[in-house]
Amino acid sequence: xxxxxxxxxxxxxxxxxxxxxxxxxxxxxxxxxxxxxxxxxxxxxxxxxxxxxxxxxxxxxxxxxxxxxxxxxxxxxxxxxxxxxxxxxxxxxxxxxxxxxxxxxxxxxxxxxxxxxxxxxxxxxxxxxxxxxxxxxxxxxxxxxxxxxxxxxxxxxxxxxxxxxxxxxxxxxxxxxxxxxxxxxxxxxxxxxxxxxxxxxxxxxxxxxxxxxxxxxxxxxxxxxxxxxxx
Length: 231
Ligand SMILES: [Mg+2]
Prior knowledge:
Elements: E1 6-9, H1 18-32, H2 37-59, H3 65-80, H4 86-98, H5 107-116, E2 120-125, H6 129-139, E3 147-150, H7 151-154, H8 161-169, E4 179-183, H9 186-196, E5 199-203, E6 218-220, H10 223-230
Parallel strand pairs: 1-2, 1-4, 2-3, 4-5, 5-6
InterPro entries: HAD-like_sf, HAD-SF_hydro_IA, HAD-SF_hydro_IA_YjjG/PynA, HAD_2, HAD_sf, PGP-like_dom2, Pyrimidine_5'-ntase_YjjG
Protein name: HAD superfamily phosphatase
GO molecular function, one term: 5'-nucleotidase activity
């Protein structure tokens, strides 16, 4: 008897290597804009800081996602003291992300195993619709998922319980006992699953120290441990 029948999976940094793609994408944008290697390095570090600050403000509800996209590269250019058009950087960067097909080592065999074992696999991601669809298609991961839910298309994002309400409404066989949320994001995946009242499994590949809240039902550091946790 399987503990769960429905597995809702986060994608970025749970199955797809978003960080790896982000680093490569930024380097390409900076190179295309004519930054030399020293400036590229500096720009990368500054961007990471600025982007993190903006996403933190977004998660607190202080700014919109659009504001992040419209301001991060302009802020970067100001901080570097370089003249340029931030929106052109943003456009190029988005192109890069749309063609980012990196997957985490072992993710494909892992998904194949779960599908073969009879689990219902559902993707539940916060992200840009076009970017996520293209990545699922190009990695071939779309063939493993019965359904794909993207916040952009739903009008609601994790950790809002409304994100899960929509998924459950479309899957009458799903119950809070036979479904688990699996992901690397504490503020999105673990908090979201907790808010809705389903079990959560925190995928902690980077061995980050666990905070006091939110508390996942289980924590795993490898796909192998995740399979053990599910059975
Ligand atoms: Mg993630």
